[in-house]
Amino acid sequence: MRRKTRSCCFPSCRLPAGRRGPAVLLALALLALSGCGGGKDDSLRIGAALYTQDDTFISAMAQDLEGLVREAESGTGEKITLFIADGKSSQNTQMDQVDRFLARGCDVLCVNLVDRTAAAVIADKAEAEGVPLVFFNRQPVAEDIQRWDQIYYVGADARESGELQGRLVLDAWRADRESLDRSGDGILQYVMLEGEPGHQDSLLRTEYSIKAVVDGGVEVEKLANETANWNRAQAAARTAQWLEEFGDGIEVIFSNNDDMALGAIDALASTPRERWPLIVGVDATAPALEAVAAGQLYGTVHNDGRGQAQAMLDLTLALWNGEDPGQAVDLAEGHYVWLPYRQVTLENLDEFLEK
Ligand code: BGC
Predict the structure, then answer these.
(1) CA gap 138, 117 in Å, rounded
(2) Predicted local distance difference test score (pLDDT) of residue 35
């Protein structure tokens, strides 16, 4: 891999002097002394900020990124340093971490926002230092992504995951309506476990899962919905309450992610019962795949965390090498990389267990 010098090809060089941050000015001064080829250090430094490491999906994704970085290092012979910071669900903490990454001279930042509305501040900090920025998993609004041409978003289309989850339920209804419609009233009674309020995946999965069922011609009745913040223990507590309140009246438990679906399973498993509602999740995490194999989770929707980590790394390497990022990843509207979702049930489980 032939590296063009960062300083010659990164857009920071094209910024008007008034908009250049101190680090950029210093880099330019060094370049003036050493010529365009003289970078401070020829290793790539990536700063990855996680909203919290306590999230099953995010921590698996961070591990994937670490593994892929090691593979890229041995494949290319390039030295790559990956810094990972745990935001512990505090946007203030994450802001400090971003400042530290920039102060340490990170070449690219990958940010999983705590609060999606904080994107503009981080974008402006990165732009001021001429450091490209890849947001992931927690999607900023389009205006924030478009603030600068070196801002990207890597993720998966939340609406698609909702639709695929809804279709899992629709297919189950069509295949064996009698066992799903326990009350026999022709209406599907459900509860909804929602992720964090304001997260695009909570909002759109909640909406589009139900829309897919209704569009498929099935009448639905919502018994209850509540946030469990992506969290297994919180979901177990909500489900336990609903089981007391509605008992066998719950025919389906929709869950915005697998960890909360597993919480629902914990609640159901804690008291012996003859029949369980149908439960569906999103992510295809390792414990969720086990629950599918055990017949406790009817199905889930694979959220390709490894694919997203790979896309972040490909994008980062292209930017670092001064290459066109559109050649390295499938770039939509110049800023977005979308990874597809896939349904998982007992039928195709093996394909996912192998991964
Ligand atoms: C995943 C959740 C995760 C959340 C974190 C979602 O895409 O499905 O499991 O908790 O991202 O932001």
Answers:
(1) 10
(2) 28
Ligand 1 centre distance from Cα of residue 214 (Å)? 25
Cβ of residue 285 lying under 6 Å from some atom of ligand 1: no
- Cα angle: 13, vertex 14, 17; to 5 degrees: 80
282 Cβ inside 6 Å of ligand 1: yes
> What pLDDT, on the 0 to 100 scale, is given for residue 113?
98
Same domain, 292 and 325: no
Q: What is the CATH number of the domain that holds 37?
A: 3.40.50.2300
Give me the residues of the chain with pLDDT under 70, please: 1-41, 354-355
**CA separation, residue 307 to residues 60, 135, 283, 304, 338 (Å):** 12, 15, 13, 5, 10
Identify the pLDDT of residue 273: 87
Cα torsion at 113, 260, 222, 298 (round to 10°)? 120
Q: How far is the CA of 300 from the centre of ligand 1 (A)?
A: 13
pLDDT for position 106:
97
Write out the two tokens for 259: 């960890």
- Write down the pLDDT at residue 41: 61
Asked if 154 and 312 count as a contact pair (C-beta separation under 8 A), the reply is yes
257 lines ligand 1 (CB under 6 A): yes
Domain count, the chain: 2
Ligand 1: residue whose CA is nearest its atom 10: 230
Of ligand 1's listed atoms, the one at least distance from the Cα of 158 is 7
